[in-house]
Predict the 3D structure of the following.
Amino acid sequence: MKALEIVKEDRLARLGILKTEHSDVETPVFMPVGTQGTVKATTHKDLKEMGIKIILANAYHLYLRPGDSLIREMGGIHRFSGWDGSVLTDSGGYQIFSLGVLREIKEEGVLFQSHIDGSKHFLSPERIVEVQENIGADISMCLDECVPYPSSYEYTKASVELTSRWAKRCKNAKQDEGKLLFGIVQGGFYKDLRLKSAGDLVDMDFDGYAVGGLSVGEPKSIMWEMVDTVLELLPREKPRYLMGLGFPEDIVEGVKKGIDMFDCVIPTRHARNGNLFTWNGRINIKNTKYTKDEAPVDEECACYTCRTFSRAYLRHLFVSHELTSYYLNTLHNIFFYADLLKKVREAIYRGVFEAFYNEFKTRWKGGEVQDEYSICNG
Amino acid sequence: MKALEIVKEDRLARLGILKTEHSDVETPVFMPVGTQGTVKATTHKDLKEMGIKIILANAYHLYLRPGDSLIREMGGIHRFSGWDGSVLTDSGGYQIFSLGVLREIKEEGVLFQSHIDGSKHFLSPERIVEVQENIGADISMCLDECVPYPSSYEYTKASVELTSRWAKRCKNAKQDEGKLLFGIVQGGFYKDLRLKSAGDLVDMDFDGYAVGGLSVGEPKSIMWEMVDTVLELLPREKPRYLMGLGFPEDIVEGVKKGIDMFDCVIPTRHARNGNLFTWNGRINIKNTKYTKDEAPVDEECACYTCRTFSRAYLRHLFVSHELTSYYLNTLHNIFFYADLLKKVREAIYRGVFEAFYNEFKTRWKGGEVQDEYSICNG
């Protein structure tokens, strides 16, 4: 099954259609994060209204609660959650290393403790594929080891080799032919190890390839160097997914290099902290200067929040700790990201992506909140 | 200006139209509580879709934050908040006595400390009317003193007399002729004082009358005795508002006695605690028995939550502390209350309210969570 149909290319940027069991998704696409099966502080109907066709959920979280066997018994994540769009599940590798208490990485798999109740769990590559098939994800990810920055060459090399062996076992364990399985390129911050990892996975012929283990504390220039290195090896005709990024400027950068898929908690998490994205950069709605500001968050934005509410009112809701504030802010930020990707796709279609990219970068710098160094995955 | 047009009567129950500047509201009506200018964990568009035409806001909260002068400067609560339905503001009397740190009740007004930052404030009856006019409420309430249960006869008597003098001053202070001002009947739990209070206020000829100071810890039988006492004196042609109640069974009880308007935090607050209302009583979605329950919260309910999600999924969201849980639960409970009142109005229109009342009471008892003694105002 061919996962990606490339419709148009503009230099390295690509416009495509990602074909999954539940929907055809136009790429480049940003997938909002619905860790526990729901995108925080919003609803499925809002996502549908905004044209969102794919969300990301975390196998790690759903495995722990409510459990993949329960989800399977309830007919899979789509039936269980009422979301009829596509779902990509992260394998849990990253979450085990960042959220759970890691006990041991063994050839057979990973032993860890739950961040919820401290209970001990063992997940093998085979089991993590089964978990994701039980969940019913349209796209599953292989189990991988995500090394911290910095890590030694020796450690990273052994880790890449393990990740490759795990990837092979994941591929062999896959049973549901209607679903897609992506490999995750690791290799820390060593070009040759990134190339080794990418080469191993490409040889295994996955449905798509993710670049993982980035944005974990390294300088941005090094991060993009790794992306460039990996992209040279990845086959043109398959979907490319940059995991866990990022800010809008990271996304346009990734698109420019030929990335098709993105996910990140930034739009949703920032929304809950009052950070709102606009075409002129980012603002924090808590700022006292918005106390009497009758303008919407972004004059150019057509979301419900911007069509209906002033900055002054949104500030009032935020400083009053109203739950409605998190909801309205989240709606806006998700809409902004969806709108950004829509404009990105239009620019590629019209063959003017580079001009779009330059204009975006220039305008973006005007925001009152300059992007801190982005540790999206931190 | 005549505030209420009575369309139909069925024994003591009344079907009417409450005429306010921003909308004509069918009564009996339940007003969701939007303390700080927004109904917690939902949005204006959801309320509109559910047919909600009037919400309650608290003058006390809005006076403290963002301040009535700011709201006035921003064009009033409707323009400021984007809510184009009607708004009734509680005067703040009750909140000062329950939330703020009360410092002194004087003939001139009330001295209190803010629950937010401890700052000291003085509000006179004249000022509280000005606050509500600055907010731009369709319906304002007089400043009143709400006495605790139990209170001595002497204290309650002096308090009723003060509340009557304050009511007179509120009436004199009112400037905006397009808006309505309601008196609040107090008198604690002494029939003669309730009659004295009602008599005083009726003589002042308010646009409508509220029964206040109930559900503060007294037995329910005594509460309804006070309601019965007061209702005998209130003019038939004016709206009657039972403040701060209550559970669905309290509402049908009040309607039966001739009450037109209700408000209470119960549907919204209970939603955030996982308590969901159904036509067969109340359930708590956290209950483990819902872990695999594929049924909606209520088979008869047409709300978005019930149309889309199973109890199993809603339980998962609740135990996972997802903000979306509070939102979906709130939607359901508000819809349930709106639907209840709609059915109440239909029954009155068809002259079968008593049969409706009896059937409702019978079914309601089937709920897994029996209503605790209702201290709605506590």
User: Anything to note?
Assistant: The mean pLDDT of chain A is 95. Residues 323-349 of chain A form the longest helix (27 residues).
